[in-house]
Design a protein that fits this description.
The protein is an alpha+beta fold. It is 34% helix and 21% strand.
């Protein structure tokens, strides 16, 4: 019987994985911001085909649940660490590798490369062809991946009810806030309404456009927004009802525009129903 034991060597030059059937080496990328595993240079000794090797490696290392059901298959893809955060950020807008890395500062480059490759292999994301030779490669969700939109929003809406004060190590990002706005949007309060908001929190800038009850939440400024505000971390209190719009000034919420639109904002974007802790 052939020896199926594996040997893994990781050093400054790259990674070597081998057994009696094949020898796989990857050269460590020297350019910062490598966008995908495919950008690495592979060298294969032996008669095995690349797809066979990759499939065998994935089968041996992939976490499975031993359950023949759709939920199991879904969690094998989006249940991996950081995978759903990548989906969340791409729901906000297509992004380059560097933009994803910047928005998820605690993810390692290797893990981000692995998650992107897995999500692409599963048909959840795809690469956008750069419009020009100097333009960076971007990732976007496929039609199949966009089906995670409502699932992600519902999960975010459910989790928002658990939010207390931010932990010392926690950050907010443009993408996380855009998805938070979409998740907490109360469409019933927006019927027939057309209004726009620009929100700034430090370096984070995004805008909200409600057109006849439909919401668009996008990164970037909107200089002619009907209401422009800098709520700071009081934003969560305003959305949960812990801070009244009438007390905005006392809580450090700075805004330019009709105060009635601030009160309307608190109705439109609301964290509803904290869970009982009895």
């Amino acid at each position: 019987m052939a020896d199926t034991r594996w040997k893994l060597v990781v050093d400054q030059q790259g990674v070597t994985i081998s057994n009696d059937r094949f020898h796989l080496t990857t050269e460590k990328p020297s350019v910062e911001g490598v966008s995908t595993v495919d950008d690495m240079v592979f060298g294969i000794d032996g008669s095995g085909q690349m797809e066979t090797i990759i499939s065998e490696l994935e089968a041996m290392t992939k976490r499975t649940y031993g359950q023949f059901c759709g939920l199991s298959r879904a969690l094998e893809i989006v249940g991996e660490r950081w995978a759903l955060f990548i989906v969340r950020d791409l729901l906000a807008s297509p992004k380059t590798f560097s933009e994803l890395r910047h928005g998820l500062p605690r993810i390692s480059t290797d893990v981000l490369v692995a998650r992107l490759r897995e999500l692409e292999h599963a048909g959840v994301i795809q690469r956008l062809v750069p419009p020009g030779p100097q333009d960076p490669l971007r990732y976007e969700l496929t039609e199949y991946g966009n089906e995670l939109d409502e699932i992600t929003l519902k999960l975010g809406r459910w989790g928002a009810r658990l939010l207390g004060e931010p932990r010392p190590e926690e950050i907010v990002t443009t993408s996380s806030l855009i998805i938070a706005m979409r998740a907490t949007f109360q469409q019933s309060a927006a019927a027939g309404l057309t209004v726009s908001y620009e929100i700034r929190m430090g370096e984070i800038v995004f805008h909200l456009l409600i057109d006849d009850g439909a919401l668009k939440a996008l990164p970037g400024p909107m200089p002619h927004a009907d209401l422009r505000m800098e709520p700071g971390m009081a934003l969560k209190g305003l959305m949960s009802g812990e801070i009244s719009p009438a007390d905005a000034d006392e809580n450090g919420i700075v805004y330019i525009g009709d105060p009635a639109l601030l009160a309307k904002f608190a109705q439109l974007f609301r964290i509803v129903g904290a869970p009982s802790r009895d």
